[in-house]
Design brief:
The protein is an alpha/beta fold. It folds into two domains: 6-128, 3-Layer(aba) Sandwich (Rossmann fold); 133-230, Arc Repressor Mutant, subunit A. The protein has eight helices and twelve strands. The chain has a five-stranded parallel beta sheet, with helices on both faces. A hairpin with a 3-residue loop joins β11 and β12. α6 (161-172) crosses α8. The longest helix is centred in the middle third of the chain and has 24 residues, at 109-132.
């Protein structure tokens, strides 16, 4: 059976870039819907229900930040933001508003496509995980919430209750960055005060138990200044 085309909503007011990128994506077997005004994006997302949105920051009408904030309230699929401004604060704002990725222009269509594929892959993995509810497998790694068991290949990994809960939280957000504050709120119901190193210690223990590289972790990654990420591709 041929898989249905993924629909991409491209919000870009630069006509040349919009045409170039939409043609490139169509050649990669996507259905592309283009919009040039920020005032029409929210309605377009509701109408077309795209699989992802590529959203320029500097749109006429509502800017990309405002649009991102609005659509993230009802849209769970990937949002990739584009901007000509290479400033960290813009990237931080976009990510805090719920964007999945942030690309500085000018950028080749091939690069944008690669980042789009990665975002869609993370979304599909998360949706598949949600459908299974209580277990997940990535390569040699398996975790089961019902039996509270973890296996790496044929080896049963023994974890404390709190370490298992932390690992389950990371796995349930596989491919996405989860902050220390979110970890504290989910596991302990309190905010992270910036001084508590208990989460870092638990992460260190998990890495050792899961045979991660403690010098250059690739299974549970540290994203500086943001948090931790369970890498779905680190379990071959």
């Amino acid at each position: 059976m041929i898989a249905p085309l993924k629909t991409i909503l491209l919000a870009e007011d630069d006509e040349v870039m919009a045409l170039t990128l939409s043609r490139y994506l169509e050649k990669q077997n996507y259905k592309v819907i283009t919009e040039s005004s920020g005032n029409r994006i929210v309605e377009a997302v509701r109408e077309h229900e795209p699989d992802a949105v590529i959203l320029d920051v500097n749109l006429p009408g509502k800017d990309g930040f405002e649009v991102c904030r609005e659509i993230r309230g009802f849209f769970d699929e990937p949002i990739i933001m584009l901007t000509a401004r290479d400033e960290d604060i813009d990237q931080i704002i976009g990510l805090e508003l719920g964007a999945d990725d942030y690309i500085v222009k000018p950028a080749e269509p091939r690069l944008i496509h690669a980042r789009l594929k990665a975002a869609l892959r993370r979304g599909d993995t998360y949706n598949n995980f949600q459908a299974r509810h209580d277990h997940a497998s990535y390569g040699s790694f398996t975790i089961n919430k019902s039996t509270r068991s973890v296996k790496l290949g044929e080896e049963e990994i023994s974890l404390t209750t709190s370490d298992f809960d932390l690992l389950w939280l990371l796995v349930s957000n596989a491919g996405k960055i989860i902050s220390r504050d979110d970890i504290q709120k989910n596991l302990r119901g309190i905010e992270h005060d910036g001084m508590d190193r208990s989460i870092d210690m638990k992460i260190s223990r998990l890495r050792k138990r899961l045979q991660d590289d403690t010098e250059a972790p690739y299974r549970i990654k540290t994203v500086r200044g943001q948090g931790y990420l369970f890498n779905i591709n680190g379990w071959d």
